[in-house]
Amino acid sequence: MTPTAEATGLRKTALNSVHRELRAKMVDFGGWDMPVEYSGLIAEHMAVRTGVGVFDVSHMGDILIRGPQSLAAVQHISMNDASRLQQGQAHYSALLYPEGTFVDDVIVHKLGENDYLLVINAGTREKDVSWVQQNVRGFRCHAQDLSDYYTQLAIQGPRAVDVLRKLTNADLSTMKNYWFTYGTVCGLPNTMIARTGYTGEDGFEIYIPSDEPTSRRVWNEVLEAGREFGILPCGLGARNTLRLESKMALYGHEISETINVWEADLGRYCKMDKPEFIGREALEQLKAAGLKRILVGLEMIERGIGRDGYKVFSESGEEIGSITSGSPAPFLKKNIALAYVPPGYSQIGTTVLVEVRSQKIRAQVVPTPFYKRVKK
Amino acid sequence: MPFPANYRYTREHEWIKVDGGQATIGITDYAQNSLGDIVFVELPKVGDELSAGKTFGSVESVKAVSDLYAPASGKVVAVNDELNGAPEKINSDAHGAWMVRIQLKDAGEVNKLLSSDDYDKFVKEEGGH
């Protein structure tokens, strides 16, 4: 058993003391002292799938790219086509190395003609900021790290809209997935409200000032407004199982500096018809050369749980790959995993073996995402 | 939750309750709380031999795997199969949810384990609160 270490030298969000008052279990997540669970991972996971939950995701980073050539700069540093974004729209994208592998995945928001906001991962914040600043140098724009200015709350689940509706004057009913707007939230004017998240469920992310009293007040108002819908504060544990059921990539697991876009099966967000972006050339060659491995979904069909790093074997006993993320899936009530295997083993229905400590258990390649919400 | 005074404890967070020449073994409330929602247990079979200090199975929560260490040596005489279908019983009643019953090989081994007071002190130091 791992002891709960006293948090020393870790970074804290403005809500750190709130999490501790709620007696959350805290963990070191990429240098941040973050809540992993409050009432229990399964209950929190189920709240988001069937009702609503709220997450403190203030550890995420935010980079503003501003200037007359901000669009050209964003086009150069990211793989999706930002020219297709309208003001108030966002999309999933990634920052790539020239090798076609990942610096990080990002959500790009078009704030205005000359303003783009990139929401990036916590663990890669410093790396991302310096990488972006270096790579937009040739453009008339500048990249500013706004990460510390915001407390970011994710209100997620089928009842998220009902909770947020009580707290804002913004019209949420006409707001589409991956769009954002501004409104008064909990008395805070001009608050950015995005219909985004990392759970595979409907939901919103709001960006409020990061001072402690405001952060605490809004967090508590969200919990109060959500009480009638059974809202639960949710930690990184549920965030991970929710994103895994929905097959959303996690940096350092499904994507990294040694994994390319095609392998990660994220080609639909990579617009090769764009004239130029960092990594494009390598991706063209990689595509022509053919894949050596590809990300697949596995479901354990024998008793056992495949977890991060466990090896995958063919039925004949040859080692063919490894699991990047694996866990019991609380909503699906199955043991699922994402793994890299050679394309020859990626066919739906293929049986493979997962080495679970001393024994090898059977697993099957299944369609992904494992969970897909029914859209209303 | 207090740790029963009539149990003995390991530093790996198992408890053992002696009953004549036999004993039942489980994990402590502190352990279940650290693990979180328990979804899976892997236990030995009746007839298997447990060896003090060696692993005899595992317990898994959604987010972690933890080995089980035998507090004392002995042959397994019963396994609590109920836990296979309802591992969450360990969360709700850790000190009642026994995993295996063994025929003790050497009752003296148990006396070397932590008392409830010593275990309580140990987890307070380990948990830092």
Structural class of chain B: alpha+beta
* Unreliable stretches covering 5 or more consecutive residues of chain A: 1-5
Tell me the overall shape of chain B.
globular
Number of strands of chain B: 9
- Write down how many β-strands of chain A occur, each being a DSSP E stretch of 2 or more residues: 19
Largest sheet of chain A: 6 strands, mixed
* Quaternary class: heterodimer
* Spatial arrangement of strands, main beta sheet of chain B: 1-2-3-9-8-5
The topology string of helices and strands of chain B comes to: EEEHEEEEEHHEHH
Which strand order does the major sheet of chain A show?
A: 10-11-12-9-3-13
Question: If you consult CATH, what is the topology of the domain at 16-58 and 149-245 in chain A?
Answer: Gyrase A, domain 2
**Would you tell me which CATH topology of chain B applies?**
OB fold (Dihydrolipoamide Acetyltransferase, E2P)
The low-confidence parts of chain B are none
**SSE topology string of chain A:** HEEHEEHEEEHEEHEEEHEHHEEEEEE
CATH class call of chain B: Mainly Beta
| CATH structural architecture of chain B | Beta Barrel
Structure description:
The complex is a heterodimer of chains A (376) and B (129). Chain A has 376 residues and is α+β, with helices and mostly antiparallel strands. Among the domains of chain A are: 16-58 and 149-245, Probable tRNA modification gtpase trme, domain 1 (Gyrase A, domain 2, 2-Layer Sandwich), CATH 3.30.1360.120; 291-366, Elongation Factor Tu (Ef-tu), domain 3 (Beta Barrel). Chain A is 20% helix and 32% strand. Chain A is built from 8 helices and 19 strands. Chain A has a 6-stranded mixed sheet with strand order 10-11-12-9-3-13. In chain A, strands 14-17-16-15-18-19 form a 6-stranded antiparallel barrel. In chain A, a hairpin with a 5-residue loop joins strand 15 and strand 16. In chain A, helix 2 (41-50) crosses helix 7. Chain A is globular and about 65 Å long. The model of chain A is unreliable at 1-5 (pLDDT under 50). Chain B is of the alpha+beta class and 129 residues long. Chain B has a single domain, classed as RNA polymerase II/Efflux pump adaptor protein, barrel-sandwich hybrid domain (OB fold (Dihydrolipoamide Acetyltransferase, E2P), Beta Barrel). Chain B has helices spanning 29-35, 82-85, 89-92, 108-111, 116-127; strands at 8-9, 14-19, 22-27, 38-42, 49-50, 55-61, 65-69, 74-79, 100-104. In chain B, the strands form 2 sheets. Chain B has a 6-stranded antiparallel sheet. A 3-stranded antiparallel sheet of chain B has the order 4-6-7. In chain B, strand 1 and strand 2 form a beta hairpin. Chain B is globular. The relative contact order of chain B is 0.26. Chains A and B meet through helix 7 of A and helix 1 and strand 6 of B.
